[in-house]
C-alpha cells in the first residue's frame, strides 16, 4: 500500500495542472485536487474510474479481483462501442466469498482465474483490478500478476486502484499510470510514420469517434492509439511512437499526456470535437503539431480545404433549424469537458445558455466558460434537485441537457430533456455529430407531447369551475367531455 500512496501523491502533485503550478511549494504538496473522504467518493469511486478508462480497450480480458458485487455494480455502465473485438463485454471476476477472505485464498484464486482466462480466451493481455476488499486484506496483485505473466507468457497488468483511495477522477489517473508502467512502450511497431497521433480521453460513446476518424483518414492522419475508445492492446502498447497527442478530457488523463511528452517527446494539446468551430480548430492543431514534428507542411493546406468543405455542409444542414431554435434557452447540467465545449457548440446556432454545471470541471474549463458566456452568473458548482425543479417549473429553460440521473426532474417539471452523458444513444462529435445534436434538441423541444402534458386533464375542473354553483358543475364537465371526444370514431381507439 505504501507504493500506492506514493503513486496517489504523485498524481495529486500534477505539474501539468495550471492551478497547481501557481502554488508555493508547501501548498503544492496538498495536490491540485482535494481527495474525497473514503466512503464519500461522490460520482464514483477510484475503481470505477480506472475501469472506465481501461475497459474500452476491447480485446483485453478485464478481471476484477473482488466479491461479485464489485463487478456487478460497475459492469457495462458506459455507452462505449467497439468496431471489432467483444471480449471486453465479457464479465470476469474472482467472486471472492467470505470463506476465501477468512482463509486467505484470494491470491491463489486470482492466479487460477488468470490461467482459466488464458486457456479459454487466449487474449493479448489480462488486466487485473484490485478493489476495496482485496486491498484491505492485503492481496498482492502485483506479485500474482508478475508470476502469472512469467508462467503463461502473457502480459498480465495490475491495476492498483481500490475504490476507497478516492474519487472516480483519481481512478482515471491511476489507470493512466498503470498504462505507463506496464503497457505503453512495450511493443515496437514496424509501421511508425510522420502522421501518427494519439487521442487521449476519447471514450467512443455511442460510436462518436467513428464520426471523427473518417476526417483524419481523409487527411492521411493515422490514429496510432485512441485511449481508451475502441482501442486494441497492441495499439496502446505502441502508442509511444506517435508524433502528437490530442487530449479530449484533461482532468482524466493529463498525467498520461504529460509523462508521454517527457519520456518520448510527444507534444500534446487539449481540444474538443463538440461543435463546428472546435472540431475545425482541433484538426488545425493536430496538423500544426505534426508539421512541428517533421510532417510535410502541405498537410496544413489540405486541412484547411477539408475544414472549408465540411463546415459548408454542416452549416447548410443547420440552417433549417436556426429559425426554430434561435433564442431557445438550454440548461446544461453536466461537467468536465462538456461544460464548455457543448456550451460553445450550442451558442454557435443561436441557442441561449441559462446555466451550466461546473462541478467536475477543471479551473481551465471554468476559465473557458467565463470567456464564452462573458460572466459567471450562468455557472453553478452544484444545484440541488429542488433548485433544478424550481428553475424548470418556472419556465426559465426550454430544455435541459443532462445525464440520466436528473431526467426525472425535467419530466416532473414537464420540460423537454435530452441525454448528453455516457448513456446516450446518439453520437454528437464532429460536424455530423453537431447536426445530430441540434436535430435531437429540435425534436425534443417541438415534440407535441409537451403541449399536451401541460394542459389540465379533462377530469380536473377545480380551477375553471370553482366559482360555479354546484348544480352546474356536472353539466359543465359533461359538455367539456363531449367536446374533448367530439368527432372520434372507434378506429381512433384501435382494436379491442
Automatic annotation (TrEMBL):
It holds the Pfam family Oxidored_nitro. Residues 45-442 form the Nitrogenase/oxidoreductase component domain. Pathway: Cofactor biosynthesis; Fe-Mo cofactor biosynthesis. InterPro entries: Nase/OxRdtase_comp1, Nase_comp1_CS, NifE, NifE-like. GO terms for molecular function: nitrogenase activity. Keywords: Nitrogen fixation. One of its GO terms (biological process) is protein-containing complex assembly. Signal peptide: none annotated. Residues 462-481 are annotated as: Disordered. This protein may play a role in the biosynthesis of the prosthetic group of nitrogenase (FeMo cofactor). Belongs to the NifD/NifK/NifE/NifN family. This is Nitrogenase iron-molybdenum cofactor biosynthesis protein NifE. It comes from Mesorhizobium hawassense.
